[in-house]
Each structure stands twice: as C-alpha cells, then as structure tokens.
Amino acid sequence: MESIQYTLSQTRIPQAWYNVVPDLPKPMAPVLHPGTLKPIGPDDLAPLFPMSLILQEVSQERDIEIPGEVRQIYAQWRPSPLFRARRLEKALDTPARIYYKYEGVSPAGSHKPNTAVAQAYYNKKEGTKRLSTETGAGQWGSALAMACAFFGLECKVYMVRVSYDQKPYRRALMEAFGASVSPSPSNETESGRAILAKHPDSNGSLGIAISEAVEVAAKDPQTKYSLGSVLNHVLLHQTVIGQEAIEQMVLADDDPDVIVGCTGGGSNFAGLAMPYLGRKLKGKSKARLIAVEPSACPSLTKGRFTYDFGDTGHLTPLVKMHTLGSTFVPPGIHAGGLRYHGMAPLVSHTMDLGLIEASSVQQLDAFAAGVQFARAEGIIPAPEASHAIAGAISEAVRAKKEGKRTTILFGLSGHGHFDMQSYISYQAGKLQNYDYPAEEIAMALAGLPAVG
Ligand SMILES: Cc1ncc(COP(=O)(O)O)c(C=O)c1O
Fold first, then answer.
1. For residue 2, how far is its CA from the centre of ligand 1 (angstroms)?
2. Least C-beta-crowded within 10 Å: which of 39, 113, 363, 371?
3. Ligand 1: which atom is nearest the Cα of residue 266?
C-alpha cells in the first residue's frame, strides 16, 4: 500500500510555541496609541487582555512553553494528521506531490481551537469571568465557545450579520457550547447602533463585530476581549501546526518546495508557514510561502502597508499592516472568515520583507477547487480553506506545465460541514464573483489615520 497518512503520537505535541519575531532580519513596527501616536505599553492593553497574553504579544523569546493543561486539551485532536493527496494528484495528472495538514479534526472543526484553548486558559488563570469576541463564519466563535465551556467562562459572540443569516447551525453550535450570540451590527453597543443608524441593512464585517466585542470588554471589568486572528499571540498559538508538519514531512521523507495557506487575518497561514520561515532563515528550507486571499477582500495583494485601526469603530490601537481601510465592508462572500479589511502585522511585515508571497482567488474558483478536492479526497472543505486548495492546485498545474516534481504542502484549515448552504447555492449556480471593489476601497483608504 502507498502511504497517504503521516501521523504522530500524542507525545509529539509540541512543548513550546515558536515565536519567529526574534529570528526576523528587521523588527516589526510598534503598535501605536491612536491619541498620542506613541508606542503603547502593556498597561494600555490591560483592560482588554490578561497580562500573560499581552506579554506573549510583545515577546522576544523564541520558544514559549505551552502550559500542561493546554497540551492536555490539545491531545484530544493533536497532533493533527498530515495527508498526501494522492487521488487529487491523479485527478490533476500532475507530477507534483501534494500534502495537506488537516485542522478540521478539532472538535470545533478548524484550527481556531489551538488559540481559543490557550486564550481561555490564561484568562481563567487571571480571574476573567466572561470573554467577548467577534466571529465571521462562526468557526472562531464556536472554538472560543467550546474553550470557554472547558474553563467555566461565559462567552459573548458578535457574529457578522451575513454569516449569522447564512450559517444558522454554527450559531446553534455556539449556543450548544453555552455562548450567547448576537448578529453584528447589533443594537447592544454604541458601535453597532452607529452603523445601523447609517446602514440599517448592513451585512456587517469582522471590523464592525470587533468594535462591538471590544466595546463590551472595555466597559465591563469582569469581561476581557478575545481575538481569533491578527495579533502576534494568536499567530504564535497556531505554530503547533507548522511544527508538527515539519516532523510529518520528515516521516514522508519529503520536503516542501511550496507552502500554501489561506489568509483572513493570517493565523492559520502563519501557524503553518512561520515554523518553516524560521528554518528558511537558518538556511534549512527553501520553501516558497504563499498566502491566498479572496479577490473580494485583497488586503495583501492590493492593500496599503501602513498604520490603521484593527476595527471599524476605531476603538483599537493602530497597527502597521496591509489594509484596505478600516471602514471597508467587503462583499458578502461565503468565506466569511476571510472578510477582514486588514492582515496580521506579522504576516504583513514578512510580506514587506519579501519573505512570503501572496495571491488572490475569486469566489467561484475557490468553490470549484473545494468541490474538486472533495471529490478526490472525500473531505468537504470550509470555503476559507478552499482558497488554499485553489492556490495549491494552481501550483500543481504549473508543476505539470513545467514538468517538475514540486512538493506542495497546504493548510486545510477546517471542514465545511456547517457551510453546506453555500455549497447548495454554488451547485445551483447562485454564487457570483465580485469585481475588485476599487471605489469603496479608495474611499476607505482616504480615511486612513494620519501617522507621520
Ligand atoms: C476554516 C477557516 N480557515 C481560515 C480562516 C481565516 O482566518 P485566519 O487567516 O486567521 O486563519 C477562518 C476564519 O474564520 C476559518 O474559519
């Protein structure tokens, strides 16, 4: 039999998260206070996050130990499997070898529990009673709801309106885990009411939902805010993915030439790619690292690398990132987790340094790739993950044209079992591509904060 599965035993769950920051050739730009435009300190973030996470956010340590209690919970689904997509290779008739690291085996169905469990753990330890958060497609909200249930924390989720309507079963899952879920923009917060006053039928966006969740945490000393992507500590927690993949690729006796991940805020891509970038910087890997984003929300490929707010209501500090402007509300594509105006500062910084590449994919091409993958491999991918599949397939097609035996590794960040309505719409020919929303993005970029 040919091998298609490369699995590690529970003892191989990484002992530490890998922080690439100290290995980078140039430091990242500091996070600024929006009033003073001076770098912020840990105390500025204390109303929102527990101190352990704030310290991880600015850490210069390369290896940050994973607490035993967190590793014990990881053991329920980690190490996650790495597969060789032999049937997809055959379907594509490519000489390329295609591997995927599958995060859909987590109980919530994606990579998001890797950080949700860690964030709930540190919050519980520091006395937080309730966590507030945003969610796009609902993957992050269900991961945090599950983690809160494990640690006895209350969980309040603002779910982007369009996804709330498109994905009722994700909401049901969050509620089954004990969370309280409201569609965003909501009438519960000043930020939500301000948007509804101007746009009563707003689809919502991650930027708006973040404002609502941050506002709730800032006003209640018992509540802290939890973010599912973008920040350094979130990307850090995801590095278990890449560290395991490195060991599994050794088991496969292969080494990736190309690594592909989808990017919304950048966390699953960074989780897979940053441990490889660390090796690359030490001369131990030659892999190209490719981030794939939706053409309807192309922060890395068309955004500006500059300081911007992380949210639409302008409650967060200013971070230097690739952005389409914090007031940009992306079209209602079904990959709800990719509808974010910005990109993780760490991913943006590595892009600016030329250490990673980016490309964009239209909605219909992403679904076509997802369906092709499902028919070959049997896994229904989340629409977000289908962007990575589309990226991997185009690399495999290129390998065929060039007659090269390229090794491709991509991140399959989650399953699409709660996204079947979007597959129904796709099969019925009801989904559409969206042109690059140039005018709206130009307007949003015109409103960027002035940082000298
Ligand atoms: C399955 C899945 N993949 C990818 C993403 C994008 O987020 P990130 O770029 O932080 O990995 C999401 C976000 O909700 C998701 O649910």
1. 31
2. 39
3. 9
